[in-house]
## 1
Amino acid sequence: MAELVSLVQRLEVAVGRLESMSSSNGGGGGAGGVVSAYVEAFDVIISGPVALYASLSKKIGGDVQKHADMMIQAFSCQRQLISTASSCQKPADAALATVLQPLCAIIQKVETFREQNRNSPFFNHLTAVSESAPALGWVTIAPKPGPFVKEMQDAATFYTNRVLKDFKEKDKTHVDWVKAYLSIWTEMQSYIKQHHTVGLSWSKSGAVASAAAAPRAPAGGCPPPPPPGPPPPPMNVGQSATSGGEDDRNALFDSINKGFDITSGLKHVSDEQKTHKNPTLRSQATAPVRTGPKPFSPSPRPAAATTPTRKLPPVLELEGKKWKVENQEGAQNLTISNTELKQVVYAYKCNNSTLHVKGKINSITLDNCKKIGLVFNDVVGIVEVINCRDAKIQVLGKVPIVSINKTDGCHVYLSADSLSCEIVSAKSSEMNILVPGCDGEFSEHAVPEQFKTIWDGQSLVTSATEING
């Protein structure tokens, strides 16, 4: 409790400094430098759930505390941005990119830290935070920033559930940490609904926000992320790569970071090629001239710079209690035998391959695999399929749970002894369970993807729709 009080006091001092800086830049959120109501409301979030999250992260220590320090910088940076918006008019898109750059840099820093610490014992904590940190980008979303924050919170919940599973019976601090962190985004949604329903509220008067009014990095700085290094090492069993990964993570801020570079893909036209200066070109034209409105077509985007991907060597080895199967391409006869009950199998980035696991084993995880086939005898724990495409799984013996998450295309062939298996799915599509009949033939059953929810007067009741989609 003493640590929490101390942290709240530090945050109050930081907020006071930000208010002073905002006032010196043209007002702290309204006439006479008075802090606006929605800046004060944001301060309540910082001094409440954010402060509690920071205190519990410090108690856990290690990578969790380092990550939390970055998030505190991000919230402080957003607080100054909101203060700027309360006293300044919204700038043009090019200038807005500059105003938002410090916040973008810290969010990228949060995500980079997770990628650089995949072997951390608190990897699920780090992933929960980095998956939801882009929620701070709600300031760029219009007209409905609230649902965007909810989506990011749901992404965090998938990993905080893993934290609860690992620590619920071991350390209550981690349980409190999960509650505190998720409450930040719950409070943020309420705050947005009350003060920024259709997007960040900018002042109708005052100077136009510019780079001079941009939120500055708090103490400790918010430098841009380091240049990309070699691909990260594979994760431990029970951990997963993030959905969308490198493709979707920065999509939120792509548009605001382009600035004037958006014209870089346009071709220069010389005077000799201009029809209004060369009548002969007009006479050579064969296409009819349109007199009506042009049909809509999306504007071409400049081609993104691509970097050659580094191909890693395939791996199939036992490391401690974990069988590592990595970077396999077109390997149709991968076999793991001489297994023990305490061992686990973790397959990562295996494509167009088939893996056969013999004997009885603790758990199996398929992560970031494409066109992967898995055949196994008995699993006493769980079989997880995460971030995969076109996975086919055949159970020869028994398995209690098959978990399918963020996967497109998954066929599970059950055995007669595994018909009591539980299928748990989330954010996945094209899932089918094949059940053996008396004649040995399999009947195919689709896992519902569409649901109907109604209010029965006391609670929400959800059921699968007749069209499973």
## 2
Amino acid sequence: MDLATIVGLISGVVLILWGIMNAGNLGWYWDTSSILIVMGGTFAATFIAYPLKKVLATFNVVKKAFSHNNIETGLIISKVVDLANIARREGLLALEEAVESINDEFLQKGVMLIVDGTDPELVKNILETEIAFLEERHSEGKSILDTMGSLSPAFGMIGTLIGLVAMLKQLDNPSTIGPSMAVALITTLYGTLFANLICIPLARKLKLRSREEVLIKEIMIEGLLSIQAGENPRIIEEKLKAFLSPAVRKMLGNQEDMGAAANE
């Protein structure tokens, strides 16, 4: 779980509410009509811009913003090295039995391609094509969130214009000018908050998570091709670790040392 996303959302909401309460009454900043204009308008326009199926799928993709996979990267490298050891001792055909212990479908597919004797260049092309379509699916989710982030301030401004029209219609009653102006500005506030606290940050986090997932799959491809080429498992491990940052490499090294100490 990525605590940064959760902490960011919670702290953002809490600090904004705290600032509002220090400035006055929290009830002053609640307006149902403004919420309906901003949220209703944003979602309606998003449904117009994208197919319903893709919009609904985006809500499932958002959960990736709350995941963290540095440990998964280490597990994948360890699994590839284990496969390399099996292939070195027993041959590539022995990997067919090892497929049952692999949970990742992408890695399973790559191993089966190797077992079937597929040309290395073709293996690489097939797996890279799958990565390309994965990136396309992820970019759609990010695009939808970016669109919502650009639409919500616009609908906040529309709500402001609606409030100003209502205010101008009642200029003969000075007591309504203040409340009407407040409602008009609250709508802009809602639109800006929804865009800058939720939609745009989540889109950026999804972009980061997509890069991390693609990196893992690139590590798998490199490892599989190295296994197919008959390289030494130790060399394969060092080659795959080269994909990682020094901090992640150090973390994986510490985990290996702890595991070795536990086995002694």
